[in-house]
UniProtKB/TrEMBL annotation:
Residues 449-504 form the PAC domain. GO terms for molecular function: protein histidine kinase activity. This is histidine kinase. GO terms for biological process: phosphorelay signal transduction system. It comes from Magnetofaba australis IT-1. InterPro entries: HATPase_C_sf, HATPase_dom, His_kinase_dom, PAS, PAS-assoc_C, PAS-like_dom_sf, PAS_4, Sensor_HK_TwoCompSys.
């Protein structure tokens, strides 16, 4: 109770207000985190929903292509010839069904149908809709006993050429093409059957790099008929029983466009644990920032509270001293009528004047003492802050030697402050880092300029490397003579590592996205171009006897060029050869490949241990090499290019690309909006490696590109 009574009321009020404010702030942060979490979940689900819609569109496009493929197969000359022969000789006198294990003669060669026959069954029927021959490359056999009756009924009633029907309770996609003679009589029917089962969905997801689990559902019961991942969601489960493990991202009817007699739905499921993991990873950084903010708030509050309490104590002491102030003179009360009345009045006036003089002198002395106390308190506060602050404060003389070092350096570098006095900051750096720092700081120190956010690496007492971000300002005496620098250094080692991790994650995401885009171009556009080429080849073969194949030959050449250009684009997007080659082998192979089609001379040399580089390092450095070589050959119009790749014992890898082209004005190029000649791409890739890129060029004198990075 005595301690509580000794605390001033103002301090108690400030403490209560601070506690209430902190509690309100924390409650507000908690509510804000909940809102952010809900919004983040909504955005993640929206992203997965859009991806599911794209997947549905790709699946529909794939099934539409099967109809076009069937028409191309039926239009080929070998199919027409085979049908005429079978129609003339009879389809089969013994009534046996022929199941081919190899590609039959009425289908195109394996090189043309290998991209279409992985999950498709081919059936050949006569004019009476009887099945005589089959061929299948799929793993799951086609149940012909259950299938034949439904297929015949479906085709006889004039079903559409591309549709979905039910066989054994599962959806099957049908694409049928009729072959007729010159009189219009039906001779044969070619049917492509694609069972829409779990195997089909699994392969489709791997082919187009889909996320989540795609399933086919019965519309009435919600039962899973097929799943892209049967180990996680097995056929036969009901969608209502999966809500505790998965989020239903998208659910829609699939078969209306194909005029199906069977009603089912396609749905995409996202595991709850995946969404929760993504939310935790994104919100983790926010939690750390909140913790730091709370710590800073309470530290500022207690420092403010301490400062106010000291001010109130001094003010109270002054009031007590003023209340107790007296002159130390005691005069007796004179009796009325005494002759000393006049003297009493004079003494009263004199005493009053003395009291005023003493009060003035006391006030002046008190103010001087207070000023001295404030000065000492300010110095003590500065020293206290210098010792308590988490950053390192320092002062240098005009020769660059330490004259003051705060105690925080011992925590950063493991060195006592007194051991650094008289030493230079360059003494604490590795030799290479010291040379780099001297070169970069020489112009600023010579101009007596401020040092802003300069990053350097120092070696701690235990040998570890500490990355510091330094800010400093020059000091001058009263006559304007330079006396040194005063500044502050902050340990940013952890921040640099986090930024490097972020660059690594961003780089990996870009690599994966480029791979996915390359696969998508190869599988979708490449497949369509191959189908068009196949159709033109068949038409050219059909017109060959009459000499009318010349127009088709020109179109085939253009398609071949388009396929070649698409292959170059996909190779640039996803250089898969880097996964099986070392960087030196990949660059040498690319130089040889470019030299075959280019008149320029390309010389490549390699030196040092260049094996064992990780995929990300190889990918970024190879992209820098590609961009530099393209700039030299196409933009600079060089006749000779030198490429050098070296690795030092310290693990520093250097790439140099030098050409004798027309060069460029670097100031003009670097100052333009597009940065020109791909130099911005080279700098960006070098930064992702944690390295640096330098350029040396002049108009008419060629260009040299250096990139250095640590493996």
């Amino acid at each position: 109770m005595r301690i509580t009574r000794a605390i001033p009321l103002s301090i108690k009020i400030l403490f209560v207000m601070s506690v209430v404010g902190a509690a309100s702030w924390m409650a507000q942060e908690q509510l804000q985190n909940r809102r952010i979490s809900a919004l983040l979940k909504e955005q993640l689900e929206q992203s997965l929903r859009e991806e599911a819609r794209r997947s549905l569109a790709q699946l529909e496009e794939f099934l539409r292509n099967q109809v076009q493929v069937g028409r191309l197969f039926a239009a080929q000359e070998r199919f027409q010839t085979y049908i005429q022969q079978r129609a003339q000789s009879g389809w089969g006198r013994d009534g046996r069904l022929i199941s081919h294990r190899r590609i039959p003669e009425w289908l195109p060669p394996a090189s043309l149908i290998r991209n279409f026959s992985r999950h498709v069954h081919f059936l050949l029927l006569d004019g009476q809709y009887r099945i005589w021959e089959t061929y299948s490359a799929a793993r799951t056999p086609l149940p012909l006993d259950d299938y034949q009756a439904q297929l015949l009924d479906y085709l006889r009633v004039g079903g559409p050429s591309g549709a979905i029907t039910s066989v054994g309770g599962l959806p099957h996609y049908l694409a049928s093409v009729e072959a007729r003679n010159g009189e219009g009589a039906l001779q044969a029917v070619l049917v492509l059957v694609a069972p829409l089962n779990s195997e089909f969905l699994s392969t489709f997801n791997r082919r187009f790099d889909q996320h989540g689990v795609q399933v086919f559902l019965r519309h009435e019961s919600g039962e899973v008929m097929a799943s892209s991942d049967p180990t996680r969601v097995a056929p036969g489960e009901r969608i209502s029983a999966l809500t505790d493990r998965y989020v239903l991202v998208e659910r829609d009817f699939f078969n209306y466009e194909f005029s199906s007699e069977m009603s089912f739905q396609v749905a995409t499921l996202a595991p709850l644990e995946t969404l929760a993991s993504l939310q935790d990873r994104i919100l983790e950084s926010d939690r750390r920032q909140i913790g730091v903010s709370i710590a800073v708030y309470f530290a500022a509050f207690f420092l403010t509270l301490l400062w106010i309490s000291r001010k109130l104590q001094l003010f109270g002491a002054r009031i007590v001293q003023f209340a107790r102030n007296d002159l130390g003179i005691s005069l007796g009360r004179l009796r009325r009528g005494d002759r000393l009345i006049i003297l009493e009045e004079l003494l009263d006036r004199f005493t009053e004047e003395i009291a005023k003089s003493r009060a003035s002198l006391t006030r002046e002395l008190r103010e001087r003492k207070l000023a001295e106390a404030r000065a000492r308190e300010s110095q003590a506060r500065y020293r206290g802050l210098a010792e308590e602050i988490s950053d390192w404060l320092w002062e240098l003389d005009a020769n660059g030697r330490f004259t003051y070092v705060s105690p925080r350096v011992e925590e950063m570098l493991g060195m006592a402050p007194e051991t650094l006095l008289g030493r230079s900051p360059f003494d604490l750096m590795p030799e290479a880092e010291a040379e780099r720092t001297r070169m970069l700081l020489a112009p600023q120190i010579g101009a007596r300029a401020r040092l802003e956010s300069f990053v350097s690496t120092l070696r701690a007492n235990d040998g570890r490397s500490v990355i510091l971000e330094t800010n400093g300002e020059p000091r001058f005496d009263e006559s304007g003579v330079f006396t040194g620098y005063r500044g502050i250094s902050r340990d940013v080692t952890r921040r640099q590592h986090i930024e490097a991790s972020i660059r690594h994650i961003k780089n990996r995401l870009e690599i994966e996205e480029r791979k996915r885009l390359g696969n998508l171009l190869h599988e979708s556009i490449g497949q369509s171009l191959q189908a068009i080429k196949l159709g033109l080849q068949m038409k050219a073969a059909a017109k060959g006897a009459g000499g009318g194949e010349e127009p088709y030959r020109l179109e085939l050449q253009e398609i071949d060029e388009a396929i070649g250009q698409l292959r170059d684009v996909t190779t640039a997007l996803r250089p898969s050869f880097l996964e099986r080659m070392e960087l030196e082998q990949a660059i040498r192979w690319w130089c040889d490949r470019v030299s075959l089609n280019a008149p320029q001379v390309i010389d490549f040399t390699a030196e040092g241990a260049l094996d064992g580089l990780d995929q990300e390092f190889k990918y970024n450095l190879f992209r820098i090499f590609q961009e530099s070589l393209t700039n030299a050959l196409k933009h600079a119009r060089a006749s000779h290019v030198e490429v050098a790749l070296t690795s030092s014992a310290a693990g520093e890898v250097t790439l140099m690309v030098k050409d004798d082209g027309r060069g460029a004005d670097l100031k003009q190029v670097m100052g333009s909006l597009d940065r020109g000649l791909g130099l911005s791409i080279i700098q960006e890739q070098a930064q992702r490696l944690g390295g640096e890129a330098r350029f040396d060029a002049a108009p008419g004198a060629g260009m040299t590109v250096w990139v250095k990075a640590t493996r």
